[in-house]
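Action item from last week, closing it out:
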Amino acid sequence: MKKREPISKIMSQDVITLNTQQGLADAERLFKKHKIRHIPVISGDKIKGMLSYTDLLRISFADAVDDEDKSVDTVVYEMFTIEQVMAKALTSVTPNHSIKEVAEILAEKEFHALPVIENEKLVGIVTTTDLIKYLIDQY
């Protein structure tokens, strides 16, 4: 295992994003379609927050619906905006942070995903799943 391997080696670069003008029903559709749990929220090319599937579960019964079901009951989603539900106080990393440093941040803060930022622009996302896959590849 390389001690200073950068997070850019394992981060997802093709990031699914939401913008602040989209609705929560759009978010749920993206979560289910792409089988992901975290979506960065952007305005232009700047990150404004992070929305997790858990954030949706807190305000709805989204988990009571079959993951394969593409229809979404949007009544509760129309009561909130993405900006009201997303996490705004973000911790981010750069592509040059080491995998070890990122793992320490995720463990210490009990996060499951971090946006990867370079020159104030979102360039990727790294998740605990990315770290687990990396560790599996090492053995």
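Closing note: Strands lie at 18-19, 38-43, 46-52, 113-118, 121-127.
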